[in-house]
Amino acid sequence: MGTKTAVTVMMFGRHLSQLKNLAEAQNLSPQCNRIAIMPRLYSTEKQPEETAAPASSPEIERLTKELAEAKEQHSELLDKYKRSLADSENMRTRLNKQIADAKIFGIQSFCKDLLEVADTLGHATQAVPKEKLTDNADLKNLYEGLSMTRASLLQVFKRHGLEPLDPINQKFNPNLHEALFQKEDKTVEANTIVEVTKLGYTLHERCIRPALVGVSK
Q1: Mean pLDDT computed over 26-35
Q2: pLDDT band, very low/low/confident/very high, at 172 (cuts 50, 70, 90)
Q3: Which of 22-45 are b and which e, b meaning 16 or more Cβ less than 10 Å from the residue's Cβ?
Q4: Which of 162, 126, 164, 129 is nearest to 146 (CA)?
């Protein structure tokens, strides 16, 4: 009887111990779960960095090549554009100069024809003997009329930019003078104009007829 009682007590104690362990396990499991779920807010472990997947090498080479070709094409087009602008500006400048020259020198041929008239009037007045002007009233009136006509013609020339060129005692200039002969003259330096056979004329500072001269040697 005593033995049965002891066995029963031992079995009861064993069951009680199992129930106690089971109860403790049930009380700790929610806390363990909560601890396991909580994030590591202050973890010292280095987290792996997220990196974008690099583009493939052929794609980079293709884009680089296209960019270089686009830059080269842009440079060529810009150079052509600048050249076109320069050509247009040069053309505009030339056209403006031609138009201005046409306005200024359009009467050049007409002026050359009138120069012969001025020369004729000049020769006529020079041919009149000055000593006979006081004795001959008609000759004096003719001389004065020719002189006034020539003076009026020269005024018209001047108004339109046509100026006579009388280079006496000036240095010979092949752009303005045409030498007909050389003359010995010790009173002046060499290549000095000592005689003018025919006056020259300039139209707006452009020589349209050189003066015919004699030059010292």
Answers
A1: 47
A2: very high
A3: eeeeeeeeeeeeeeeeeeeeeeee
A4: 126
* Runs of H (alpha helix) within the chain: 2-37, 57-105, 108-127, 137-159
How far apart CA 141 and CA 48 sit, in angstroms, is: 123
Query: Which residues face 214 on adjacent strands?
Result: 181, 195
- Band of residue 31 on the pLDDT scale cut at 50, 70, 90: very low
127 vs 143: CA distance, rounded Å: 10
State both tokens at 61.
């080479």
Indicate whether 24 pLDDT > 90: no
Average pLDDT over the chain, rounded to whole? 81
Closest by alpha carbon to 58, among 50, 70, 66, 47?
A: 66
The span from the CA of 192 to the CA of 162, in Å, is: 25
CA distance 16 to 75: 95
